[in-house]
Write a structure and sequence with these properties.
Blueprint: H1 3-21, H2 30-65, H3 75-84, H4 87-107, H5 117-137, H6 140-144, E1 157-166, E2 169-173, E3 179-183, E4 201-208, E5 215-225
Parallel strand pairs: 3-5
Antiparallel strand pairs: 1-2, 1-4, 2-3, 4-5
Helix pairs in contact: 2-4, 2-5, 4-5
């Protein structure tokens, strides 16, 4: 090492020590770094787990409402599906994934300066999704129940358990316990003529009677599902 380089190194050490002595640079204990790293790792793991729980709650909601079967109605059923989804679950799930990505960037995982945000987004999204499906298979959503009170749009669609039918009129009980008389469209035979439909579920898209909410005029009908 040349004399000039030794002089530069000595000057640098002198400047650093001077900054430390003047308290412009604060030395941090190794335990502080470890605690910070553990805290970020815990926060990241918690964000992923909470995201997975939200997925399990979403799956429970869809199963509980039998919402997927409305998609068999085509475009009208898709509108009912989209109008019923609990978007608070979806938004919170996205926020949890975003939080996990933020904490991962703070930890500098997988890459030096962590500039591959798109990679993290996909990795954490699918990680939380797979874990959420696992939680859903374990029945976690049913145990937690959830807080969403979304229902199938009352005025445009109906899902109820069949109690009786006669001609083109079907009496069904909705989830809230109310009895509704569903008047079927005139075209085509929809219900079986025996008692096999009793206690099964009917789905219909149409309109609720404005004067009498216990009457529903069906346009499209799906029957009879055991759910």
């Amino acid at each position: 090492m040349s004399e000039e380089m030794k002089k530069d190194e000595a000057d640098m050490k002198s400047r650093v020590m001077g900054a430390i002595n003047s308290k412009k640079i604060k030395m941090r204990s190794h335990f502080v770094f470890v605690a910070e790293k553990l805290g970020l790792e815990s926060a990241m793991a918690l964000a992923i787990i909470l995201g997975a729980i939200l997925i399990s709650l979403l799956l429970y909601f869809i199963k509980k409402t039998g919402l997927l079967k409305f998609l068999t109605f085509g475009y009208p059923g898709m509108k009912i599906f989209l109008a019923t989804l609990p978007y608070d679950y979806i938004i919170l799930f996205i926020l949890m994934v975003a939080g996990a990505i933020y904490f991962a960037n703070r930890l500098e995982l997988f890459c030096g300066k962590c500039e591959r945000t798109n990679f993290f987004t996909v990795w954490f999204f699918f990680g939380a999704l797979i874990l959420g499906l696992f939680f859903g298979a374990l029945g976690l959503g049913g145990i937690l129940g959830g807080w969403s009170h979304n229902h199938i749009p009352h005025d445009r669609a109906i899902r109820g358990q069949i109690k009786s039918f006669e001609g083109n009129e079907v009496s069904v009980m909705e989830e809230d316990g109310n009895m509704v008389h569903v008047f079927l469209p005139d075209s085509g035979e929809i219900l079986p003529l025996d008692g096999d439909a009793d206690e099964k579920f009917l789905r219909a898209i149409g309109r609720r009677d404005k004067e009498d909410p216990s009457i529903f005029h069906a346009i499209n009908v799906r029957c009879c599902d055991s759910d």
